[in-house]
Amino acid sequence: MAWWSNNKLRMIQNNLRDIDAKMDIDRYISILxxxxxNACMVGxxxxxxxxxxxxxxxxxxxxxDGDFFGELIEKCHQNGIRVIARFDFSKTHESIYARHTEWxxxxxxxxxxxxxxxxxxxxxxxxxxxxxxxxxxxxLGCYPVDGVFxxxxxxxxxxxxxxxxxxxxxxxxxxxFKAMYHMELPKEENESDExxxxxxxxxxxxxxxxxxxxSSAVKKMNPDVLVCTYNHQGVDMVRNESNSAIDRPYPFWIxxxxxxxxVVEGSFTDKISSNCVIxxxxxxxxxxxxxxxxxxxxxxxxxxxxxxxDWCIIGSxxxxxxxxxxxxxxxxFQFHKKYEEYFGDFIGQAKILLINPSPFGVHSPASQExxxxxxxxxxxxxxxDVAEAGRLDAVSNALxxxxxxxxxxxxxxxxxxxxxxxxxxxACVVSTGLSFIQNEAELKEIFGVNLKEKLxxxxxxxxxxxxxxxxxxxxxxDWVYLDMEYYDMDTSGGNQNILPLITPSRYGPPERCFGHxxxxxxxxxxxxxxVYFPWKPGTLYYKQGFEDFKYVLLNVIDSIKTIKNAFDxxxxxxxxxxxxxxGKDKYLLQLLNLSxxxxxxxxxxxxxxxxxxxxxEIRPKHIYGLFADGKIELVEFDIVRIPVLNQYAAFLIEI
Length: 655
Hints:
Helices cover 27% and strands 27% of the residues. It is of the alpha/beta class. It has a 9-stranded mixed beta sheet with strand order 16-15-17-18-25-24-23-20-21. An 8-stranded parallel barrel has the order 1-2-3-7-8-9-10-13, surrounded by 5 helices. Strands 14-27-28-33-30-31 form a 6-stranded antiparallel beta sheet, covered by helices on one side. The longest helix is centred in the N-terminal third of the chain and has 28 residues, at 194-221.
């Protein structure tokens, strides 16, 4: 079994600057141990070589005396700390460009993509295709690295200052694209251009091919080396980030870690997840950290969702100017270290499967329907698994383990295997956010729906919350407003049609605001156990926040199928609850208090009193509270009572 397979990582990434080659390595390791880290990720090669390379196409660190990386890995291993070597093949020093211009990206303006003294390399050039393998061969031949990580892998259309450089126009890209598609390489990102659509495929194919080539080479040199990057292909560990940015559009997504870990854990059986919690406020402001409470929320979210711990700062610890996060990060790392036997290898207890249309596009329009439903389920403490839309073939044979399958915001379902599984599953299938809009035959067969025209005038319209036998949350509210996209639909004769559309009335001064019409057009239709929403309740909830959209969806689901959650709790919606099997006859209950989040700022959480959790499917024999100073058995064995929840709490249940 591979050393990483149980996912007990507590990794700290120090994004080394060239000047950090002079840092005190013994002091560095002492700080790692003080945190409780069992792995570190540090710069090794690519842009700058942190070891004395003999390769002419690598730039040796001018601040380095001796062998920085060699000394660091030797001392880390002496102290039981694994080392992941970080490589960045996306750029090299300008001196290498002067000798090999054909290896490099050429912008749409016909120029190399320069940034300070570095120049961007191309995926299809010799540097990434061949020299990268020689660099890895040199490192793995000299040092017993535990893993390798590749930063900024793939095609870049902007530089570090967000300046657009466009589609690479180098000769390698032109010739390879023409050989594959018999077309000229496009110069514009135009979705209506057939060449650009082929180019999007070209990027995926060539990146996957290169990753597989690199991974195969690494495994041939040493099969015990973990391979990792921000991609699924050719890796043992899928990495992603919980980060912030000052120009990022709102709403601020507080569940980033949970999403990033869950989508990997639910989509792959042969890979582990590592979600890196970025300390920095922004890539422009790397030397100031986010709120220490946000850092904790993100790290606890990693851990509670089944991932390892992964935290990153720039440079060395000693001269990092913002140490406000250090102690609170240590709390999480030390807790994980104390109880690591229970973490990283969970068996989920969810009966709901949520499909993620765009796994790492948290702020893309395609993902907003999903994010809203993710938020709904979290707030209502309903356990769910997540699977990536690109992995539907792989999850199709497991659909019957779920009682509810939610498919949000996926206009075209590519997987024929998944569609066939949907036709035969016993689970309730719910489609929202105009999923299946490009699968007309399947939309008709599974949901009994033919979509008609898009409603041109939506704003000012409403939905009639009838029948009340379904919409139990709306005893005193008959109308819920409608916004964004909405399609009229024809439904099969056997469908149950509910939630009638109310057309907009005249808009203007109050004296003229009347004339709404209740129509026969349903806004939800039900065929057996299949439910279709021709509008976007998840997106509306994500962007606009009114709970009505949540309860419309959940009321419909609950009217069709009663899904018994693994537990019941009186915890408020600001508390996340996680419940997983963590060993033979052992379960882990975790609670994360998000009450300090006000939408833009993350404060210290408000202590929440008198939370209770009871279990519906297990009968505990022993319940232990897991605390920083030790494990304590609770007096009661059939219920968890939490007098006060601060940031986080965990309980081990034995049956």
